[in-house]
Every structure is written in C-alpha cells, then in structure tokens.
Amino acid sequence: MKLLKDILLYSLFLLSGIALFWWQYKDLDWEKLKHGLAITNYFWVGVAIFLGLLSQVSRAIRWKMLIEPLGYNPKVSNIFLSVLIMYFTNLLVPRAGEVARCTILAKYEKIPASKLIGTMIVERIADTLVMMGLAVIILGINISVFKRFLVLNPEVNAKLFRLLSLTNILLGLAAIALLVIIFLLVKPFKKGLLSEKIKRVKTGLKEGVKSILLLENKWYFIGHTLFIFLMWLLMLYVVFLAYPPTSHLTIWAGMFTFLMGGLAMFAPVSGGIGAWHFMVIESIFLYGIDRDNGKIFALIAHSSTNLIYIIFGSAALILLPIMNRRLAQKKQQDVIK
To answer: Residue 249's closest CA among 283, 276, 296, 226?
Structure first.
C-alpha cells in the first residue's frame, strides 16, 4: 500500500513538472529553438560539464573527510561513483538519491549505513547553511532586481508571503519543538516502527556530530563546501557565455539566476523540471533577455547539467561492481602469492 502511495505521489509531482514545462515551451517557435541551438558555443557547455564533475570530486573528498573519523577509510573512487549515482537517482525519484548513495557505499565499503546517514545529515546541514548565507548576500546585492521579480510574478509573491506568514513560522517552530520532545522521550517506547526509526535517526545524528568534532582540518571541510557552490555557480555562468544572447550578462546576473534556480530545486519534481526553467527564464528576463531566448538558455543549461547526471551516473552504476570485483580478485591473488 505504501509503495502504491509513493508511486502515485511521485507520478503526480512528475506530471506537474512536465505540465509546467509544457506550458512554458508550448509557444516557442521551433525554428528559433533550432537557430538558438545552432549558434550555441558548445565549448562552454563542455566547460560547464567539467565544472560539474569537479564539484562531484570535491563532494566525494568532503564526504571521505567525514567518514574517516568514524574509523573507516573508503576509497575515493567508490565515494565519487556513489555520489554520481545519487544525482542520477534523484532524477528518477526525487529525494531518493541520498539513501541510494549511503546504501551503495555501505555495500562496497562494508560501512554501517546508519553511520553514513549521519555524515549525510551533516553534509546537508552544511550545504543549507551555505545556501542561506549566499541567499542573504545575493539578495542584498540584487534587492531591487528581486523586488521587480516579485512584481512581475504576483503568484510567486503571494506564495512567498503565505510561506513566511507568522502562522507558518509559529507552526514551523512548534514542529521543531515537537521533534525535539519526541527525541527526548523516545526511551519509553521500547517497541514499534516509529521508535526504531527515531533511534536510527538519533544514532545517525550522533555519528554525524562525532565526525565533525573529530575532523582534523575543519577549514578544509569548509573550503570544499564553498568550492562546491562556486563550481555550481560557474556551471550556470559559463552557459551564459555559450549562448550569444546572454553572453553579455555579468557574474552578478549569474549569482541572482543561480539563487532563484536553486530555490526552484526545492520543488518535489525530478531534477526541478518546469520549476527550474520558470525561475531562470523569469530571472534573466529582468536583465533584458526576452522570454524566448530565456527559454532556450534554460533548456541548454538544464540539459547540460542533467547530462552529467544521466551519462556519468549510468556509467557509475556499471563501473562500481566491475571495479570492486577486480579489486577483490587482486586481493585474493596477493593473498595466494
């Protein structure tokens, strides 16, 4: 029953994203699209893909830093491939990638999944804090642009106003307080699925906090976190350079577009399809890019990003068992010798 519910929910979100995507692109002149793709400088698209891979390498190294204080020394290659699979999985099932990467690494490195989940939680907290800090800085620099965005998109303005209403803020604080109480009072519930799940989360959090406290070089960890976001920003900006109508836009325009596109990724649809395109199209419209060219740019930028996840994620699924099988055989041969 739960599986059926999850499938129906995922299908609903996917169809919503496809419907939003179709609504935005249904009036685009196909000849204009073909011309836009023809004049695109694919060298810069290749650079964007390279920067995306660099961000995944950095993410793999950062994850290894969190795992090592727990007494394990996983191979960077396995971590890197599992990270690629994470993004590939998220394209298929939103939010499922984190579980997939922990499960895969646990299988090939013989690390308890509960410990990996703790490190994953720490990573997410670090990413959220950096994203919040960037949001404050970028909105501070582009406050007039953001105001114009809200004026031109009253439906977004209304949703944002409702989201940040006093009622929702109080409900959010109440929910956090309730979770804290449940965590503190979990001991009386010796049995039951809820109790077991809470215990696993608590164990994961403890392991995650432990990994942070035992980090030898916390600044190295912070540096990797900032580097990952820098690569993501540059991934988008170099596509500005690839498409002639947007090639004159500044890095400040890239920062604002990056932020708005990042907010769209919170939508529960595969790869932010539809929602990401809408936010990016409307963002660069504020910088004088007409919506047709904005649609073509968003299509190129989104496709180049997801190309990384689809091609390299698929390759990772094939390479992981092959590489680890060969390593196991080599170890056996070394033992025999």
So the answer is: 283
